[in-house]
Write a structure and sequence with these properties.
The longest helix has 18 residues. It contains nine helices and five strands. It is globular. Helix 2 packs across helix 4. The strands form two sheets. It has a three-stranded antiparallel β-sheet, with no helix packed on it. The protein has a two-stranded antiparallel sheet with strand order 1-2. By secondary structure, the chain is mainly alpha-helical.
């Protein structure tokens, strides 16, 4: 298993995240992750109240050590300027209200979020907080999508997710799709979806 935010490979065949601890402080973030790995929801669970199918949709999930995952929390993604208050040797950083993933996964993060928005923007769980979270990231996600195109790993993962979950991420299959849609079309309005959405 490879931690997306640290780039650290931990061998094993277990289905339990606790069986994939960091050996010492390999990512040099000052925190040995002895408790292992868990699942990073690129679209934070707090924004959809841990509802299904959003919570288990593999296209926006990544494996990470628990500490970098908790450092990111529910922050939007972006470029950290100035001195970060967290960083590791892979290039993950936190500062000025955003979390910046390593270059190695910026494209994957962008395509995961583009997929999530496209699939769930009409969900009753897509409330005002989700609109704010999404709109502030569109331009940087589009840039990351262009700068870091899908690689063989991401293409193979898309095939595996389809075999397991039954659908694909179209932004991996068609690299130019996001630009054809355009940042303006991706910008979310302020949906009026009733009390449930307003409270999300």
């Amino acid at each position: 298993v490879i931690d997306a935010y640290s780039g650290i490979f931990v061998p094993g065949t277990s289905k339990e995240g606790s069986d994939y601890p960091e050996r010492g402080d390999e990512n040099e973030d000052g925190f040995p992750d002895k408790t292992g790995m868990n699942v990073e929801h690129t679209w934070p669970q707090t924004l959809f109240n841990k509802a299904l199918p959003e919570r288990s949709d593999i296209h926006h999930l990544m494996t990470t050590f628990m500490h970098p995952n908790s450092v990111r929390g529910h922050m939007p993604f972006g470029i950290v300027t100035g001195r970060p208050d967290y960083e590791n040797k892979a290039g993950a950083k936190r500062g000025n209200g955003v979390f910046e993933p390593p270059d190695a996964v910026k494209g994957r993060v962008a395509r995961g979020l583009l997929y999530y928005y496209s699939r769930y923007k009409d969900s009753r769980m897509f409330g005002r907080t989700s609109v704010v979270f999404w709109n502030q990231q569109i331009e940087i996600l589009m840039e990351w999508h262009r700068r870091f195109p899908p690689d063989a790993f991401e293409a193979r993962r898309n095939d595996l997710v389809e075999a397991w979950q039954g659908n694909r991420n179209p932004f991996i299959d068609d690299y130019q799709l996001a630009d054809r849609v355009g940042a303006g079309a991706f910008r979310a309005g302020n949906p009026a979806r009733g009390a449930n959405a307003a409270s999300v």
